Known about the structure:
2 copies of one chain form a homodimer. Helices cover 74% and strands 0% of the residues of chain A. The first copy, chain A, has helices spanning 9-27, 34-40, 45-52, 55-79, 85-99, 101-109, 120-140, 149-168, 171-174, 180-196. In chain A, α5 (85-99) runs parallel beside α8 and α7 crosses α8. In chain A, 32% of the residues are buried. Chain A binds a DNA duplex through α3.
Amino acid sequence: MGRRSDHSRAELERMIVLEGHRQLAEAGFSRFSAREVAKRIGYSIGTIYNVFGSHDRLILAINTRTFRLWADHLRARLGSADGDRIRTLVEGYFSFARENPNLWMAIYDHRLPPDVAMPPEYQAERGELTEIVTSEVAKVLPEPARAGAPRLARSLIATVHGHCTLALNGTFALMGESNPLELALARVRESLAAAKA
Amino acid sequence: MGRRSDHSRAELERMIVLEGHRQLAEAGFSRFSAREVAKRIGYSIGTIYNVFGSHDRLILAINTRTFRLWADHLRARLGSADGDRIRTLVEGYFSFARENPNLWMAIYDHRLPPDVAMPPEYQAERGELTEIVTSEVAKVLPEPARAGAPRLARSLIATVHGHCTLALNGTFALMGESNPLELALARVRESLAAAKA
DNA sequence: TTAAAATAATAGACAGTGTTCAATTTTATG
DNA sequence: CATAAAATTGAACACTGTCTATTATTTTAA
């Protein structure tokens, strides 16, 4: 059959990503099924492969969307932030991950094979996220230290990421730690204080 | 058939874990196959399930072994360390992950379902690893701050873990960062310095 | 020594998965 | 309307983890 409804190709693509997003959020990375996505939007598995080409590229498209939602989440929080924007940033990192654990973890669960290229949109959304952090870090640093903001921002992202990962996968609970967020924030503050001096 | 060779049950268990370890190191978590493990040691898939009961418990057994090797790796490095034991620790964390990327990542790739319990040996090996770090952190802290060593150690593990994760999955390379290890070490030093003051 | 019980191992069946692709149906165009 | 183009299908393939009835061996008991 050919085009069977009023959906353009772009709209079909959106439908698949949207339903895929829903599925990934519900089932998690390991139980995600492209067949199930197709079934739920009333298409067959072949259509998914015509549009996305592979499982990897479908996941990539879904993760790109997650990145965008995550960046939106941070921007919204920063928009209505009181003075402590660094805390807002760390809390925003954690809260998105906690509110969307399967989606957030899927970003890091998915390791793309060497033969499949990273889509430009994916890299763009990812870049925006780091840009948000970098600009906030720069704001907090005194003029002479500001040149080091990008590098410090990457490092602070890694620091918060590590705390968030171990929080979500239960490692901190196993270690008897009940407040990973405050732990992460303390580390970030120390590093910023050191950069100021 | 019954026992067909001179392998005791415990020896068979070891054989499976050993070959599984090899497979996991080669293929990585997503391409790991219990069937392939069985085939390579000359047994059938059923035997794996008689011994381990499920895919999850096999992975758990393999990851337990990885934890032990990792702890050994750190102990060996600390044993022949010069004065800078903190650097040795961070470097040991990174070097094990870099030398065994698939095994190291598999530890965090594997999310065990809520219905399968964590084996005591798993938790024990994991505990030893954090103990190594905690004791080194305690050594570096002045007497009055030493009570906070366990909590700080957890946090520093998370910090280094985050840097190591983003290093191995290519995020740092994408961000243009070429030396994640030194970044991690700098953050750790800052936090230790802050704890001393 | 032989019979019974316990153990070990197998291989096939089942329901899934990602992937491919020839066949088919729908739409658009001349 | 006829034809070309595009979109969609679903069966087939080679896998996967999991379960189970069957068979073979070893151990134990009589």
